[in-house]
Amino acid sequence: MNIEWAALGQVFGVSLVVTVGIVGLFTVGIVGTSRRPRQEGETAVADGPGAGARAAAVAAFALCAAAVAYGIYLIVAT
Asked: Membrane spanning segments where (predicted)?
């Protein structure tokens, strides 16, 4: 049995970068949908996030879903 260490390292590197990227996108989505206090020390308002933050959160969640769907496609198509 011969292990191609360079190929294994490439797979590890790409997996690490993609995993960190998807987790980062998901975090942006969570932060974009969370309620923020208006001033420091004040309780959170009931209004929720603004339109820009909500749009960024939806885009981040859509990119996460697209990445997961592409991964499933790669597994199933083979």
From this structure: 12-34, 55-76
Nearest one of 20, 36, 28 to 57, comparing CA atoms:
28
Taking a C-beta distance cutoff of 8 angstroms, is the pair 33, 57 a contact?
yes
Helix axes 51-77, 5-33, angle to 10 degrees: 150
pLDDT confidence of 34, banded at 50, 70, 90?
A: confident
Decide which of 17 and 47 is more confident. 17
Half-sphere exposure of 13 (CA within 13 A, CB side): 6
* Pair 48, 36: CB distance under 8 Å: no
Residue 36's Cα: distance from chain center in Å?
20
**CA dist., res. 75 & res. 78, Å (int):** 6
